[in-house]
Automatic annotation (TrEMBL):
<keyword id="KW-0547">Nucleotide-binding</keyword>
<dbReference type="GO" id="GO:0005524">
    <property type="term" value="F:ATP binding"/>
</dbReference>
<dbReference type="InterPro" id="IPR032675">
    <property type="entry name" value="LRR_dom_sf"/>
</dbReference>
<dbReference type="Pfam" id="PF23598">
    <property type="entry name" value="LRR_14"/>
</dbReference>
<keyword id="KW-0067">ATP-binding</keyword>
<keyword id="KW-0611">Plant defense</keyword>
<feature type="domain" description="Disease resistance N-terminal">
    <location>
        <begin position="42"/>
        <end position="121"/>
    </location>
</feature>
<dbReference type="InterPro" id="IPR038005">
    <property type="entry name" value="RX-like_CC"/>
</dbReference>
<dbReference type="InterPro" id="IPR055414">
    <property type="entry name" value="LRR_R13L4/SHOC2-like"/>
</dbReference>
<feature type="domain" description="Disease resistance R13L4/SHOC-2-like LRR">
    <location>
        <begin position="209"/>
        <end position="298"/>
    </location>
</feature>
<dbReference type="Pfam" id="PF18052">
    <property type="entry name" value="Rx_N"/>
</dbReference>
<dbReference type="Pfam" id="PF25019">
    <property type="entry name" value="LRR_R13L1-DRL21"/>
</dbReference>
<dbReference type="GO" id="GO:0006952">
    <property type="term" value="P:defense response"/>
</dbReference>
<dbReference type="InterPro" id="IPR041118">
    <property type="entry name" value="Rx_N"/>
</dbReference>
<dbReference type="InterPro" id="IPR056789">
    <property type="entry name" value="LRR_R13L1-DRL21"/>
</dbReference>
<keyword id="KW-0677">Repeat</keyword>
<protein>
    <recommendedName>
        <fullName>Rx N-terminal domain-containing protein</fullName>
    </recommendedName>
</protein>
Amino acid sequence: MEELTFKASEVGTTPDLHKQKTCRKGCIIAETLLIVEAAKGILSKVLSLVANEASLAWGFKGELKKLDKRLNMIQALLSDAESMQLTLSAVKTWLKSLKAVAYDADTVLDEFSYELLRRQVAVRDRIEYKVRDLFSPSNNPLLFRLKMAHKIKAINLSLDAIYKDANAIGLKPVDLINSSAGAGHQQVLVTHPGIANTPASSKASYPRVRTLFLYCDLPNNMLANFTRLRALVLTNHAMEELPNSIGKLKHLRYLDISETSVKTLPVSINKLYNLQTLRVMYLTGVPEKFGNLINLRHFIFDDDEYGLWTARPCTIDGIGQMTCLQTLPCFVVSRDKGCQIEDLGGLNNLKGELKIFGLEDVVTTEAAKNANLLKKSRINALQFYWSGEEEEESNEVVPIEENTDEHVLEGLTPHSNLKRLKIQNFRGKNFSSWMMMPSQSSEVLRNLVDIELIYCQTSEQIPTLGHLACLKFIQIDGLYNLKRIGSEFYGHNAEVATGSGRDVSAGGAMFPALRKLTLLNLPGLEEWFEAVHPSPSVKVFPCLDVLKLTRIPKLSMVPSHFPAVKDLTICGINDAAALQKMSSKLTTLTFLLMISVEGSDLQLLMEELLGKNISLKQ
């Protein structure tokens, strides 16, 4: 922040001058407070790294202990600097002078962290270093320790000088780590076309840049200049590939290439052990050993967010090793090692939504159970996809009793925190027990808000859902073998409880929270029965606002219990008489759309609907 300055001609009365001076002093105080708080944050991080990486520091523990001591002294001095009892400008200058040292200390200790992650990957992959690699700093532990010892010694010498400066201005035991923004240490760089022609004086600051927004072509080897980069955002739709030099950004935490045309990632990206967030638009492939990104927390597909997928996403090799993952929009199952359903088992930090594709490649119930969805309490939305195509012939022998979608779905029991569920192209006759049996679904699906069953063509029943207290949206689409919807749909059973914990026979409601019900593409459905309940006080669909019945040509019977429906769409029904029972009690409609409804009773049906629903006339 620049200091405020005033010309004599701009200052009027003495009170005005006093106000200006007060304002200037206030700005300096505010800026200094910000610097102090930032210093505390970086200092805390560095001290934590010193403690955590001590085991890696064999060979220079002495220098590391000195660094720890100096940093603790600086932390003590920060309180004195914050008290503002001394000359503000002197404190501010001293704080800024610490910036470079703090910045360097943070970077060096970050290299510790990177080396630790690299070694974890190396041990896991059983990498054996060859003689010709002995003098490679990236592979030889002795050379790495010598390099780090030299860097830490230089930092300690700088801290000694800064500590003397603190004493000179009257600070008591302080040493500081400054914010990562400030004079001489550029934090954020936004570049536009023409960066390749940037003056050498500006390019000299590249090693200090931590955040880079690039809105132009990426010149060859340009990234090698940004040795301390933490965040990189590339915006250029003409860019189709990342340079291999991306793998040299060992401090990189955040990489966003969602505004590019990059569809595959270079092998060198596997070396970004510190990477925590990777944002892409769409990928057709990732390199082998992509699981080396063991620190990755968020893997985000923007085309998934915007619903732009035109094909099934790619498999992710080694996904099971990325145990820090919290955001993973989709997982594609294959029978290849590293991409099997079991590889989801250890990803217990996953949260939000997860789409699982390729479930036709899961061949046993046990394999599905090993995905461990039941224990993933932070996943609130699941989508299960089987291929819509016929399976290709395989020479692999699979036990017949296990090679069914029914058994696989049974093993994919979710945690009870689930709110949204979508199942597509499931080929079993019956859904799983955790969906069909009220005694199980009352627990597993107790928080379910939205369910979609899409093109489950061989399914002959729909799940029991009427007892679910939170359920608001149902879509049943493409269940070609479904012929009837009976009492099992409503959940009228002695063991079924409503959301209030009461049996429906004691006076509750069926589908107590449902707002929208869509039945679509059901060519075999003939009968939709009334709910059977022992008490007239039991309400059915008490909150249902929207009902859509589309392309159900054989439908001959529809129930009458729709006390609150306002929006009704009926399309592709061959017998208008099937709707008479429903129309006889409908009085709340405000919108009606009827298309391709046939039958001799159509005129009578329309007259009845218009006569009983006054809002339709308006």
